[in-house]
Write a structure and sequence with these properties.
Layout: H1 4-11, H2 15-43, H3 49-78, H4 82-113, H5 118-137, H6 141-162, H7 166-214, E1 222-223, H8 224-241, E2 245-252, H9 255-262, H10 264-280, E3 287-290, E4 295-301, H11 305-321, E5 323-326, E6 329-332, E7 335-341, H12 349-365, E8 371-372
Parallel strand pairs: 1-3, 7-8
Antiparallel strand pairs: 2-4, 2-7, 3-4, 5-6
The chain binds 3'-deoxy-guanosine-5'-triphosphate and magnesium ion (2 copies).
One magnesium ion is lined by residues 251-252, 255, 294.
Length: 373
Amino acid sequence: MMDKNDRKNMSTAHPKLIESLVDQTPRAMIAMLIVSSVYCGIFIKYIPFNILVIWFVFQMLLATYRFYNVKEFKKHLEAKNQEKIEKTELYFIISNVFQAFMWTISSILSLVYAPQPYELVSFVMIIGIITASALSMSSLYKAYLIFFFSMITPQIIILIYYGEHHHIGVAILTLIYIPATFLLSKAIYSSRLSSIQAHDDLEKSVNKLHQLSMIGELTNIYNRRYFFEIAENLIAVAAREQNKISLLMIDIDYFKSINDNYGHQTGDFILIDLVKEIEKTMRKSDVFARVGGEEFTILLNNTSLDGAKVIAEKIRKTIEDKNFTYKTISIDLTISIGISELNKENTSIENLYKQADKQLYIAKENGRNRASP
Ligand code: GH3
Ligand code: MG
Ligand code: MG
């Protein structure tokens, strides 16, 4: 299902479409200046020099503006500023209408100053520009259509009203050319959009897969690998900001005998229920993970050893008091907890983990159902 955000994004161009436009623009502008020079070269014999120079200077100004326009697009895309992107898109469209106006001027100049059939030369040039622009501009389809019609409409008018009879043939050619170019640009646009969408879908799937790989199968909490990844980052931040971090290592007492007495399925159920019970006692900033079959860790952010002892005791008591029931079976169980703290000796997650494991062993040795130290 689409959410509101998706729908809002649909009404404006996909950022990647704008990126592709941004990529194409410099090449398109260089090509435009080359074509403009060729036009000047061909018509310099007929059109007054001053007029040609003014016309060419305007084309250069336009190209300069378009380079600036690209820079604006890049800046606002980076800042994800939708409002500014839309505004830049509008300026892009206006600059294209101006560009169409410049080419219309060029064909009027050739009509006025050059002998027949020179206006055909400028007509063919304009048709070429429209076709090439389908490549560079189709990413912003709306902008392309506006450009297309502001280029082609004056040409049709000029050909029909000011040309000789044979120009009617050219007008008909234009009528065939219009739908063809329309379909061409639409096809380019659609294929770009669908490849971008396919890429987006793939990215989403990869992210989802990554998420799933972080989470354990049975209990739906973070797995060992992700725990080490996230713990490393949190410890780096804590070391920099001189925050306290503590680690609890939890192991179920005599869990093997529960499996042996009631079956593995009962054991699995208890694991799931135990996780839910522990989660209730936790804060948002704590990182809870299953690091072994029936072994769990909780990384306690902003918590000293003394604070961790209080939390460990709370968890221990909760599990001791809880009566686990599966089908008709009622089971009491206890846990042991090893605690360690980030300090001068324990500076890495590996040290912290080793230390907590050592303390867990001591808790087991001292009779289980307890935390150590
Ligand atoms: P203690 O920790 O108190 O020393 O005794 P224990 O019986 O819990 O011993 P230990 O921690 O060494 O054994 C862990 C047992 O947990 C072994 C295995 O049968 C069981 N176990 C591990 N993973 C799972 C699991 O995913 N599901 C079930 N049902 N049992 C598991
Ligand atoms: Mg164990
Ligand atoms: Mg155990």
